[in-house]
UniProtKB/TrEMBL annotation:
Annotated protein name in UniProt: Cytochrome P450
Named cofactor requirement(s): heme
Family assignment from sequence similarity: Belongs to the cytochrome P450 family.
Organism: Lactuca sativa
Pfam family, one: p450
Transmembrane segments: 6-26
Length: 609
């Protein structure tokens, strides 16, 4: 009634304040129900907590967690960042709420209208939807499943033995462990995806260019971008980094992949050769752009992580001589010869414990890769707003004194007999992450690193350069895209004397045996055995000098053949005790090398020791 008597102006004057009142009233009720953001340091206007951060973000965030608790929130510019720093927080993020927190924060550098990386590979696909699942399944079936890994075990062994051969040729000289490992990892990835080696140990080959471009690509990607902190600047490339970045992605790397693919296409018969990963991608109708994006991902995710983990592991073993001795005993007692196969790794539980301990102290991804909340959700009683950036501080969890006894010491024994694995099931130990976004390369990486380190232990004695004291190894770390050693580790690997001597002793022993045998029975059988011994000797020398396995194999086959010839000759000799027949037989059996053998047969030279 009263409203009916009011004029239009009076009605507006009444409605505006009352609707505002209602609005604030309902907001108050709603916000009293809504949980707060996780606690954290006070954010300053505009900049938020930017000035409280430093270069080693994992260390600074661990310090903040000490003050504010295991789940904290920060504001970096306009962006909300949530950090979990305990195993309980990791389990909430990567297991309980994995379905909404497994989005990816895609840095502006990678976002482009014409997608070249973003949403074309696994790591930088923003949501774990169908497109992401398809790529993940393709990766698993073609590269990372047990069957796919098994089918390429020989190729990996060949690459590891090429590394052993190269280091043997540099026996006694200084080498950088990481550089050597990067070559091996690059060629392993090259053979998986393109059926070819891409670089040699002297740094020649297209792989060197790829690694250089990836290094620049990663170091640009690791710089804080204004537009990531203030989305309002997203339209402009104020720092001109995006232009530089796209130049590396499209012009440098893009051209390299295109060239390799063209060369590969011209150089092989796809219908008969075994298909590699790029063949499968092309068969599946992937565009060249997508092939490029996946190649970039495989090489950048696979090479640096394996290189730096191997370097940390070697550095820890050199610093801890007692542990080194235990690992050496484990490996050297078990393996006869110079080759470690992946199937031998089950016999090296202590070496595996050393790798686990290395990844606990020096995880290449100390904060995993940044996740993104695809919806607002509630974690541990706090609100996580949509599009917040989510980090899990693996580095802090790996050093948490409530989980690990004496957490800063390198003690691989803690993993012996423990069920802790890096398979993403134990939230106190997650060097490869967990849940949907867990690293798919875990098995490939662990097998390769363990085979490499076991082979280096088996074939070489390790020394620090310039008689450096092991305690003086600089273990300082740097975090850009991955965490790596600040100072490269240079070591001197000397071919093991024992291996050299062992083959000499065996050679002499066998020759002595042959001498005796031939005196008592007949000289011709002795000649045959002598050849066998010489083959054995040649093979041992191959081993000692790190010559590839194939050379060893050929020599082994030849040895077996000679043994057959030699036994036949001996049998004939018992029967044909006359000199003329013997010489005739010599002619039959040793057609090619007949002259030499006749000479040996007549003169009886070389039969005794
Ligand atoms: C020691 C070696 C390695 C370590 C410690 C490692 C660790 C990690 C970590 C922590 C993540 C992020 C997980 C997350 O965001 O929750 C990741 C993701 C990934 N890694 Fe690895 N990685 C290693 C080797 C490899 C290798 C050899 C490959 C491939 C050849 C690979 C391919 C990937 C890919 C494609 C992703 C993205 C997965 C996704 O977003 O769905 N990694 N890795």
């Amino acid at each position: 009634m009263i409203l009916g008597r009011l004029s239009m102006g009076e009605m507006i004057m009444f409605l505006i304040p009352s609707s505002l009142l209602f609005y604030f009233f309902f907001r108050m009720i709603k916000s009293s129900k809504e949980k707060p953001l996780p606690p954290g340091p006070y954010p300053w206007p505009i900049v938020g907590n930017l000035f409280q951060m430093r270069k080693k973000a994992h260390i600074r965030l661990a310090e903040m967690a000490q003050v504010h608790g295991p789940l904290i929130s920060l504001r970096l510019g306009q962006r909300i960042v949530i950090v979990g720093s305990s195993s309980a927080a990791a389990s909430e993020i990567l297991k309980t709420h994995d379905h909404v927190l497994s989005g990816r924060h895609v840095p502006v550098l990678l976002r482009d209208k014409e997608s070249t990386v973003h949403n074309m590979n696994l790591a930088f696909t923003s949501e774990t939807g169908d497109g992401w699942r398809k790529i993940r399944n393709l990766y698993t079936s073609q590269i990372f499943s047990s069957k796919a890994l098994e089918s390429r075990a020989n190729m990996r062994l060949e690459k590891v033995m090429e590394m052993v051969k190269y280091i043997a040729s540099k026996s006694g000289e200084n080498i950088s462990i990481k550089d050597v490992m990067l070559v091996t990892a690059t060629n392993i990835m090259g053979n998986i995806s393109l059926s070819m080696d891409l670089v040699d140990f002297e740094g020649n080959g297209i792989g060197a260019k790829i690694n250089d471009a990836l290094r620049r690509f990663s170091s640009l990607g690791a710089q804080p971008q204004l537009a990531d902190l203030y989305p309002i600047f997203g339209r402009w490339d104020i720092q001109s980094w995006k232009k530089k970045f796209m130049q590396i992605v499209e012009q440098e790397l893009g051209t390299i992949w295109e060239d390799i693919l063209k060369r590969k296409k011209n150089g092989r018969n796809i219908s008969t050769d075994k298909k590699d990963f790029t063949d499968i991608l092309i068969d599946k109708g992937c565009t060249h752009q997508q092939v490029n994006a996946l190649m970039q991902e495989l090489f950048s995710a696979g090479t640096e992580s394996m290189g730096s983990t191997t370097e940390w592991l070697v550095a820890e073993l050199l610093r801890n001589q007692e542990i080194m001795k235990k690992v050496s005993d484990e490996v050297r007692k078990k393996i006869d010869g110079n080759v470690v196969k992946e199937s031998d790794l089950v016999h090296f539980p202590f070496l595996e414990a050393c790798l686990k301990e290395t990844l606990r102290l020096h995880p290449p991804g100390p904060l995993l890769l940044p996740h993104r909340a695809t919806q607002t959700c509630e974690v541990m009683g706090y609100t996580i707003p949509k599009d917040s950036l989510i980090l899990v501080n693996m580095w802090a969890i790996g050093r948490d004194p409530s989980i690990w006894d004496d957490p800063l010491s390198f003690k691989p024994e803690r993993f012996m007999g423990s069920k802790l694995s890096y398979k993403g099931k134990d939230f106190e130990y997650l060097p490869f992450g967990a849940g949907r976004r867990m690293c798919p390369g875990e098995a490939l990486a662990s097998k390769t690193i363990l085979t490499v380190v076991a082979s280096l232990i088996l074939n070489f004695d390790w020394f620090l350069v310039d008689n450096m004291n092991p305690e003086d190894i600089n273990m300082e770390e740097v975090l850009d895209v991955a965490m790596h050693k600040k100072e490269p580790l240079h070591v001197t690997l000397k071919l093991r004397e024992q291996l050299k001597l062992k083959s000499w002793y065996l050679y002499l022993l066998l020759k002595a045996g042959v001498g005796l045998f031939s005196r008592y029975f007949n000289y011709l059988g002795g000649v045959g055995i002598l050849i066998k011994v010489d083959y054995f000797f040649a093979r041992s020398m191959c081993i000692c000098n790190g010559l590839d396995n194939i050379a060893g194999k050929v020599i082994r086959e030849a040895t077996i053949l000679t043994a057959v010839v030699e036994i036949s000759l001996s049998l004939f000799n018992f029967w044909a005790a006359n000199e003329r027949l013997r010489l005739q037989l010599l002619g039959y059996f040793n057609h090619g090398g007949g002259v030499l053998l006749k000479f040996l047969g007549h003169s009886q030279l070389g039969v005794g020791v």
